[in-house]
Automatic annotation (TrEMBL):
InterPro entries: Glutathione-S-Trfase_C-like, Glutathione-S-Trfase_C_sf, Glutathione_S-Trfase, Glutathione_S-Trfase_N, GST_C, GST_N_Theta, GST_Theta, Thioredoxin-like_sf
Protein name (Swiss-Prot/TrEMBL): Glutathione S-transferase
Keyword terms: Cytoplasm
Family classification: Belongs to the GST superfamily.
UniProt organism field: Plutella xylostella (Diamondback moth)
Amino acid sequence: MSLKLYYDLMSQPSRAVYILLKKSNINFEPKYVDLRKGVHYTDEYSNNINRFKKVPVIDHNGFILTESVAIIRYLGRENLLPEALFPRADKVLNTRLDEFLEWQHLGLRAPLAMYFRVVMFSPDSEKIPSYQKRMETALDEFSTLWLGRGNQYILGDTATVADLLAACEVEQPRMTGYDCTANYPVIRDWMDRVRTHFNPHYAEASSIVEKIAAKRVPMKKPTAKL
């Protein structure tokens, strides 16, 4: 099997796919795409690898696939992922996984990613409070509607790819100085479990987050929430 991963660990979904491949003991050839240097905008990359000019991308025996969720579903359906991480046999659990994967695009990823982008690239924008409000609304919903049901993880008491994708999104605002776990004990405890489950690969992939977050001044936190 020949598998190449085009990635940059600054990218949340890149981290998720990278960790997943490592955790699943899948041999792959890492292909670093430096987003800060605009490598994803070059003709070579956009014409030959990803016409959407994004990461991650996999090349599996010549089959090129973009979009992290599509990549994860493909790896799962090809039986390259452990059943525990990508449930297939249990049709109900598999459908619940699909339910979360569909929700997280707009329910979690979009508001957290947009907050990160505006703070990092437009730090003086007067729109930051509105983006922060949207992000915190998403964290409220994630905490109560997905994690606040007495389970250890999103789909139950076993960690799956749903937890990995979500955790990588929750980490991203830390690079702006905002810790999403500080005011949400349920998310904080869940994050601790996810990190432990996917370590040492989680820590390896998140080292860039830790490095940048260490240089940021923590933002003032509101009253603790559930």
